[in-house]
Each structure stands twice: as C-alpha cells, then as structure tokens.
Amino acid sequence: MTAWTSDELTKIETVEELRIASLRRDGTLSDRRTIWVVRLGDDVYVRSVNGPASAWYRGTRARQEGRIRAGGVEKNVTFVDADHDLNDRIDAAYRAKYGHYAASIIASITSPKANATTIRLVPRSH
Question: What single Pfam family name could you report for this chain, choosing any that match (predicted)?
C-alpha cells in the first residue's frame, strides 16, 4: 500500500464532500456516492451517517476496494476498518470541519451508529 501525499491530504481535507465508489465482484465500480470526509493526521476517514445499512457502506464490505474523487484527487483505495480507539478524535474532526451545519446533522455523523462504520481510506498504487 502507498501513502497519501501531502498535496493529496491538503486537497481532500479542504473539500466539503468526497465521491466514493466500491469495486463490484465483476471488477466494475458501483455508482458514486457523495459523502463527508475528514483528515486525521496522515489518514483520511469516512462514515455512513445511516449506519451499516447504507448501500455504499455495504459495498465497501464486499471487496474492500474502490475509488474516491475529491478536490481534484482521484485514487484507487482500500477500505480499512478504523481503529475504534480513534472515534473521539474522528468525531472532533467532523465537528470542526462540519460544525457550521445544524447540531442534529453533526449528532448523526458522530452517533454510535455512524461510528461503527468508520473507514480509513488507504491509497493503492494500482
């Protein structure tokens, strides 16, 4: 696996939304979904506000590979379950980045249901 470049991290960190698609069994990409994204250090995280029942999240579980697009960055990624010990820090990153939205929206993305779906996006070179 490769690492994000500093430029990629900055671009992803500054955009409001990320487009994500999971790889299907036949090798094609699913429809892209628009989701929120946060950066924590040199890592990039996403969550399903609707929890594990969300179609895009279920797609990440099937093959654990896909593609993202955000801020001019387009990259193949591996979907890795996040370390749940980081949930408080990831919650804080969501609050800091998206705090201008209604409190109820922020409460949804930082809920235990959403926390359970936190995924670290790891860039792939192929």
Answer: DUF2255
Low-confidence ranges of the chain (pLDDT < 70): 1, 126
Query: Residue 101 burial (CB < 10 Å; 0-12/13-18/19+)?
Result: middle
Q: Cα(28)–Cα(23) distance, rounded to whole angstroms?
A: 6
Q: Give, in degrees to the nearest 5, the angle at Cα 40 between 83 and 70.
A: 110
Task: Give me the domains of the chain, ranges plus CATH numbers.
Answer: 6-123 (2.30.110.10)
> Quick one: pLDDT at residue 125?
80
Q: Is the pTM of this model over 0.90?
A: yes
Per-residue pLDDT, 126: 66
